[in-house]
Every structure is written in structure tokens, then in C-alpha cells.
Amino acid sequence: MAAWNSFPLQVIYQILGWLAFLSWSIGGYPQIILNFRRKSVVGLSLDFEILNFTKHWSYLIYNASLFFSPVVQKQYFDKYGYGQMIPVAANDVAFSTHSVIVNLIILSQIAMFDRGNQKFSKYAIAIVAVVWFSATICFFIALPTQSWLWLISIFNSIQVVMTLIKYFPQAFMNFLRKSTDGFSIGGILLDFSGGVFNYSQMAVQSIDQGSWVNFYGNIGKVLISMVTIVYDSILMCQHYILYDKKGNTSKNLEEVNQSLICESPIDEEIKGSVKCSHHPPAEV
Question: What is the average pLDDT across 192-209?
Fold first, then answer.
């Protein structure tokens, strides 16, 4: 395993890593606090949380395996060379572990607090089921040949895919409601900072080693940073520029639900204007 060439860069690497850990870890608490104060999760996408839970579990499996397992580390060095560094740091493992715990807390709040008309969509449930079924199949494929590096790379790919799609339900819900009320922007700001710190940490390692192997050796860490930055930018734009963050949540949710019920003008005419129209009846 390669050693650091520059002590100052090694210190910067550690600082950036733990700043990413703090940003991403603390980023989960504003939503927990907001849910607790409101005794409600209305405005928080339930699909976002279940996809996020799958993502963090997959990332924990990858980070913990590559950081702690000598067998997996040997397979990594056999593939990328013994002159390279393991691309997973202690802060990556700490972040993954903490994120799983935070997500469990939020899921428990979803079970306890008011959800309004919100529920997990069949699409999100199907995605999660397919992901874990596929991961199980991959485990049995890797078992005969002990291809553990390949297996955890699958989990790394899973967390990238989950990161790509997990933000969409929340962004889409904000779009439908034209509001970000009930969704904590504080967590997004910290999430954005974590993405920047995480990417910067990998850049520092590459500069010290004079090699970009750690980038494609742990492409998942690179992509999670870039995807996080892009999606968080969209959510921040929705909150600060596009929508009223203090909008009438109940009214917006009612409008979203009614827009889904009122399928067409013909249906409205058949069912009557009272159910689907937002206008009061004319006075006689």
C-alpha cells in the first residue's frame, strides 16, 4: 500500500474527509427536528426516504468491506496495483454507519407521525425489492469464486443508482405542491457542503499520489459527490427562488390530490364540478 508523499496534503485529506462526515451526518438532523416539532412528515417524500435507506445500506456494505477486510483489500491491490491507496477512509465508514441510523429514525417518525394522504408508492417499493433481489443473486454468483471485490462493487453501483433517483421524488413533490414547506432546506445545504468536501478529499489524494486511480477505483464516491451537488442545487433553487417555502401545505396537497383524481374534462363533467373544481358555486 502506498504512503503519503506530503504530510500537509495528508492532513488536508483528513480534514476534508471529516468535514464531509460532519456535513453529511449533521445534515440528517434538521429534518428529524422539523418532523418532531410538527409531529408530521407531510411535505417529506416517503419515496425519497425508502430509496435513501437502500442507498445508505449499500454504501455501508461497500465502505466497511473495503476498509476492514484484508481479503477485499488484497483483491483491490491485485486489480489496481500495490502502489495504490485504498480509496475508502475512516470518515466514509463513519458516515455510512451514522446515515443508516439517522434514516432509521426518520422511518420511525414516518410510522408515528401524521402522513396526511402520503404513502410509499408501488414504484419505490418495486425498485427496492428488485435491488435487494438482484444483490442476493450477485452474492450467490460471487460465492463460488470468492469474488468479493466484484460483489461490493455491485453495492457501490447500487448506491450510485439510488443516489441518482432518490432525490427525484422530493423534487417532483415540491414541483407539484409549488412549495417546500415541510422539507428541511438546512439538511440540503449541509448535504451540498458534504458533496463538495468529499470530492475535494479525493482530489487531494490524487494530487499527492500523482495518480487518478483512486477516482475510477472508487467511482461510486466520485459520482455520489457530483450527483449530490447537482440535485441539491435543484432543491435549493426550488426553495429560495421558485416556490414559497411557507405556502399553504394543506391546500397544496389537496390540489395535488385533486389533480390526480380529475383525469379529464369529460370525467369532471360526469362526476360534477363540485368534486373537482376549485371555484365556489355560483350564488343564486
Answer: 90
